[in-house]
Design brief:
The complex is a heterodimer. By secondary structure, chain A is mostly helical. Helix content of chain A is 77%, strand content 1%. The two termini of chain A are 42 Å apart. At the A-B interface, helix 2 and helix 7 of A face helix 2, strand 5 and helix 3 of B.
Chain lengths: 306, 291
């Protein structure tokens, strides 16, 4: 019979026979694709929210030309705020959606494969637990921000074109929208913001991954209840809420570090990447995220079906 | 070279001893049947071999420490843990893409060839396939991987007899080539009887019988003893006795065929007969010890 086993093979030889396998990126690449195949909500949920936002915007543009005339009578700063607002609301809603999707994805990432016993199949393939965990962490840290970026920009583009068409058909110049909402510049700010948010939230995703690998059931409760319990304990015992404000800082703290907002509005913020990168909170968070992921890698090694 | 070599393999779960100092050696090119009652430690032994659980003792599988290097080991080892471990959400075509993408020894054309003999559609999701088709799909994947060791843990559990027969037929005709090693556990002992080259009975974490099929066939004889010879036959110390239609059937280890023929009809016992005999004796010892 002709088979390669008749030739003595060492592990090194086997690499030489199949050079394609030597590339360590392929298991990772396919593992990420696998996650995207399994979790279509990564794309679908933001898409649905995008469509809902567009529909809401569509309804809100009834009577837009008249209102735009009134807005343009205001002083330029206030006009800008008014014109920009729906675009920022759309972006914030989609960013919030992505965060929710990311957390629930992580809570199920290591639990689902144990629940449906498919972990036995995944572990029968030459993919290490580290590669698996890194591919799963890539979803909330890289894939979701990219998807969110694409959907936000597309949504805003549709909004811009719709507004322009509406204004032109009413004999007005669409320029007031395009100059007050510079899509290209806003996209760069958005990209920066998404990176800042993803890194800031990394320990939250890491924690969710760890809990999903550890808990036998009710991953959401296991992930959340301990924090609530500590918060309540502190409040009852010491009457303080340092722990609660720490959690709040972890959820929202990226904003004051990564952006400098002007006094009057939350719009048109200044980017402050240097301040963001020199915040101890960022690096402390990333440290925790690393610890959680490393613990989850070790945990998965011991884990079988539930 | 031995495919698997283990010494004093021990594994406990709390106070339960799943493996109690097992010494194991499986040579390359063998098809080993690991037979034992529920909870005997079969799956624990396989999980230790596959690097899925830590264990005490020493073990080398294809020269590697399985617990330390599962992902590397899996380049050369395939396993089917159960009939239903393929992810239910995945499409057949994507499953092929994925395995091809992560496994250096996967031959996609070969897998497509095996699938062409079935009614499985590429566009179907695993959840849309029948249990038998899922088993066929998993077998097609595994047979397209050029592995040195294949581990099957109850691969046909819950399948109807046609799929079970087909499963072992394809395994023997299209996969086994005399150099690969296969370990299989099953409760359907009679189905693997003609497939195996080696036999191992395991009970309460210990190996209670270990022999090649040639040895099995030459060592064990079963006699349906004529009533007048029962006392004489019992004097030869059968390892087991049972009654069939009111006549005694005695199972002998290392007995002389000519001598037994004098007592009645001599035949070769099935693995299932030997299993019942050996396990029955084990239970007897246990009860004796308890007294």
């Amino acid at each position: 019979m002709n088979n390669p086993s008749s030739v003595p093979e060492s592990p090194i030889d086997s690499h030489a026979i199949v050079p394609a396998s030597a590339s360590p990126t392929r298991p990772f690449y396919w593992s990420v694709r696998r996650e995207l195949w399994e979790n279509r909500s990564i794309c679908i949920a933001p898409l649905i929210v995008g469509v809902v936002v567009l529909f809401g915007f569509l309804v809100s543009t009834i009577g837009l030309p008249e209102r735009r005339r009134a807005v343009l009578l205001l002083d330029p700063a206030k006009a800008r705020v008014a014109i920009e607002m729906p675009y920022n609301v759309a972006a914030i809603m989609l960013i919030f959606t992505a965060f929710i999707v990311g957390v629930f994805y992580c809570l199920d990432a290591l639990h689902g494969e144990r629940r449906d016993r498919s972990i036995l199949f995944w572990k029968s393939l030459p993919v290490s637990d580290l590669t698996t965990l890194l591919s799963k962490a890539t979803i909330p840290l890289v894939a979701l921000p990219l998807v969110t970026f694409a959907i936000i920009v597309s949504t805003q583009l549709v909004m811009l074109f719709w507004t322009s068409v509406l204004l032109i058909t009413h004999g007005m110049s669409p320029g007031s929208t395009w100059t007050n909402f510079n899509l290209f510049q806003q996209s760069l700010i958005l990209l920066y913001g998404l990176v800042a948010i993803a890194l800031w939230h990394a320990p939250i995703y890491g924690w969710a991954l760890l809990v999903s690998g550890w808990a036998r059931r009710a991953t959401f409760l296991w992930a959340v209840v301990p924090f609530l319990a500590i918060g309540f304990f502190e409040k009852i015992t010491f009457g303080t809420s340092h722990f609660g404000s720490m959690l709040k800082h972890r959820l929202m703290g990226f904003a004051p570090e990564a952006f400098a907002f002007n006094m009057h509005s939350i719009d048109s913020p200044q980017l402050t990447p240097v301040r963001y990168l020199s915040t101890p909170g960022l690096w402390l968070g990333l440290m925790f995220a690393t610890v959680f992921v490393v613990a989850a890698v070790r945990l998965r090694r011991y884990r079988g079906p539930l | 070279m031995a495919c698997i070599e283990a010494r004093r393999l021990r594994k406990t779960f709390g106070t339960t001893i799943a493996l109690d100092g097992v010494d194991l050696r499986v040579e390359e090119g063998r098809i080993l049947g690991l037979i034992g009652p529920n909870g005997a430690g079969k799956t624990t032994a396989l999980n230790a071999i596959l690097g899925l659980i830590p264990f005490q003792g020493e073990m080398k599988v294809l020269g590697r420490d399985p617990w330390g290097a599962r992902d590397q080991l899996m380049r050369d080892v395939s396993f089917i843990a159960d009939v239903a471990v393929l992810p239910r959400w995945i499409r057949v075509s994507r499953l092929l893409d994925y395995v091809g993408g992560v496994h250096p020894r996967f031959d996609r054309a070969k897998a497509e060839g095996f699938l062409a003999k079935t009614t499985i559609k590429r566009a179907s999701k695993v959840r849309e396939l029948s249990k038998g088709m899922v088993a066929q799909l998993h077998l097609a994947l595994v047979m397209a991987i050029d592995a040195k060791l294949l581990v099957l843990d109850e691969p046909t559990l819950g399948l109807d007899i046609l799929y079970r027969k087909q499963f072992y037929d394809s395994l023997l005709n299209d996969y086994f080539d005399g150099t690969r090693t296969i370990i299989v556990t099953t409760h359907q002992v009679e189905e693997v009887q003609d497939v195996l080259t080696d036999l191992m009975f395991i009970d309460r974490g210990r190996i209670v019988l270990e022999c090649s099929m040639e040895e099995f066939e030459s060592r064990y004889l079963e006699v349906m003893v004529n009533p007048e010879h029962v006392v004489a036959a019992r004097a030869l110390k059968p390892i087991h006795e049972r009654a069939v239609f009111g006549r005694s059937v005695l199972l002998f280890d290392h007995a002389d065929h000519e001598q037994l023929a004098a007592f009645g009809e001599v035949r070769r016992p099935s693995i299932a007969d030997l299993f019942v005999a050996v396990m029955g004796n084990q239970a007897g010892h246990k009860q004796g010890a308890a007294k």
